[in-house]
């Protein structure tokens, strides 16, 4: 089997390692089958050279504190480089219809292509939210493994305001119209986090309490809510992604 490529953007080791470990656990992949590159730290070109997508079964992009809608003057050199590399890769992915699953930050990476727009209109606070599949989502080979309505963990400042041309809307929530979409037949983005379980969300609340997602004084209440939530379905997407696209 050709390996999968996992791209992370989290500078905080405990969150970055927890995300990668969760992707491995829920996808069923071994480390040797899922190569990780931390784009907040390393240039993709420096680590891999010129990326030939045919060398990989597919690409998985994790989340992180970068937002494409951040003012340009406030973006760090690492964010600007990561965004440029991801945009170039995303254009190749869409052109070749390479298997791609972008989790949360995938919305920012894919959502601005082909006339799409990502902004701060539909941000959602950290927690568990009911997500509903569209008719196309229920029929989709990837999203269709989920029930018509399910709870998922999320927390984001930006979201898709206008879908890219040709995108198929797969899932929505009451407070965010675009929770998942597909470009072509194999390129996916989810606003929610399929890799997150209760412990993973608690870790991120602790790590990102001063990143503007919530008032720091409210962290304890968010942690209690995260521990009490019952979120079981979204991780199935990772195993299904591997099942569909491993080659």
What does this structure look like?
Strand 9 and strand 10 form a beta hairpin. The relative contact order is 0.17. Helix 1 (13-27) runs antiparallel to helix 6 and helix 6 (198-207) packs antiparallel against helix 7. The chain is α/β, with parallel strands linked by helices. The chain is globular and about 45 Å long. The protein has eight helices and eleven strands. It has helices spanning 13-27, 44-48, 77-96, 105-111, 135-139, 198-207, 219-228, 236-245, and strands at residues 4-8, 34-38, 58-61, 100-103, 117-119, 124-133, 149-156, 159-162, 168-172, 180-183, 187-190. It has a nine-stranded mixed sheet with strand order 2-1-3-4-11-10-9-6-7, with helices on both faces. It has one domain: 3-Layer(aba) Sandwich (Rossmann fold).
List keywords for this structure.
EC 6.3.5.2, GMP synthase (glutamine-hydrolyzing) activity, 11 strands, two-stranded antiparallel sheet, Rossmann fold, GATASE, nine-stranded mixed beta sheet, globular, Class_I_gatase-like, 8 helices, 247 residues, alpha/beta
């Amino acid at each position: 089997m050709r390996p999968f490529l996992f791209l992370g953007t989290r500078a905080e080791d405990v969150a970055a390692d927890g995300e990668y470990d969760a992707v491995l656990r829920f996808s069923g992949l071994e480390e040797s089958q899922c190569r990780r590159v931390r784009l907040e730290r390393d240039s993709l070109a420096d680590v891999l050279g010129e990326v030939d997508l045919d060398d990989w079964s597919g690409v998985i992009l994790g989340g992180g504190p970068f937002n494409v809608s951040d003012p340009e003057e406030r973006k760090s050199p690492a964010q600007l480089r990561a965004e440029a590399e991801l945009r170039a890769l995303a254009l190749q992915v869409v052109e070749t219809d390479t298997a791609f699953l972008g989790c949360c930050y995938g919305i920012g990476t894919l959502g601005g292509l082909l006339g799409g727009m990502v902004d701060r209109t539909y941000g959602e606070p950290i927690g568990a939210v009911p997500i509903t599949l569209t008719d196309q989502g229920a029929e989709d080979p990837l999203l269709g493994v989920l029930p018509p309505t399910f709870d998922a963990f999320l927390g984001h400042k930006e979201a898709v305001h206008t879908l890219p041309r040709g995108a198929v809307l797969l899932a929505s929530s009451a407070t965010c119209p675009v929770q998942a979409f597909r470009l072509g037949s194999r390129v996916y983005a989810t606003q929610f986090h399929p890799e997150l379980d209760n412990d993973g969300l608690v870790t991120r609340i602790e790590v990102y309490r001063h990143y503007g997602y919530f008032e720091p004084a409210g962290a304890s209440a968010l942690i209690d809510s995260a521990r009490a939530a019952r979120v079981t379905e979204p991780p199935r997407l990772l195993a299904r992604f591997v099942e569909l696209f491993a080659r």
